Amino acid sequence: MTGVKRNVAVLISGRGTNLRALIDSTTQDADHPARIALVLSNRAEAEGLEIAKAAGIETAVIPSKGKERAEFDAILDTVLRAKDIDYICLAGFMRLLTHGFVQAWYGRMINIHPSLLPAFKGTDVHARVIESGTRFTGCSVHFVSPEVDAGPIILQAVVPVPQEATAESIAAAVLEQEHALYPQALRLLAEGRLVIEGQRVRVTG
Ligand code: GAR
Question: Which domain covers residue 159, as residue numbers?
Answer without folding.
Answer: 112-205
